[in-house]
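Sanity check

After download, print the first record. It should look like this:
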Amino acid sequence: MPRIRPNALVLLLAYSACAPAALAGEAEWLCLTGDDHFRMWQAPTGEWTEVGSVALDPSNARLLISQPGQGVMVNGRLGKTDNLVSKAEFRDVEAHVEFLIPEGSNSGVKFMGLYEIQIADSHGIDRPSAEDCGGIYPRAREEPKYHHIDKGFPPRVNAARPAGEWQTLDVTFRGPRFDAQGKKTTAATFVKVVLNGKTIHENVAPQSPTGSAWLWKAEVPDGPLLLQADHGLVAFRSVRIRPLAAP
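Expected structure tokens:
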């Protein structure tokens, strides 16, 4: 089950049409979008806004336009704002995320706030790298300037759709395990990652957090879901997550 902070306990009672009914024996889905959705996320939420729909700006395909309404989260006008970090914390989960980006944009979904599945404008690339859409992001160093120190885990196929189209990401993830002394005994594992209906990873176990987080963030038993918001415009809808039973 997720580790819930006291002030977030009531969030597990939230319901939205984005969360399908659980089958017998399954945990309930926790929906992170929908009516009054920002109560599900830690403050500050910066320039994130809720709208009814988004599309490419017909005058500039690197921008998005939106229509009023509910159910879609977009990270402001310029795509450089605070990341969304869930109030609830999890270990082993199944997650569903739908996203849309304009041309040239970049985002990510980080499990436990540490292990990133990349979102990028990668449609049509013949041999995608871990920096492309669906990649498990490489490790990096900040100095003397930001650079990668490994190749991460590229998606096995390029399943990315063109910019301006809604895309789906379905992930089964298991967090790392630790012994009584706090020593890691089992690495975090992306059990299965499906992008737009195509399996792009199975049983991939990063040995540390991705990006530069491995340098300054400790691996932990539980952590939040994070949606990256400072690398470009992105919209999300139907974001839902549910805990899995321990193996």
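If your output differs, re-run the checksum step. Summary of this record's structure: The longest strand covers residues 60-74.
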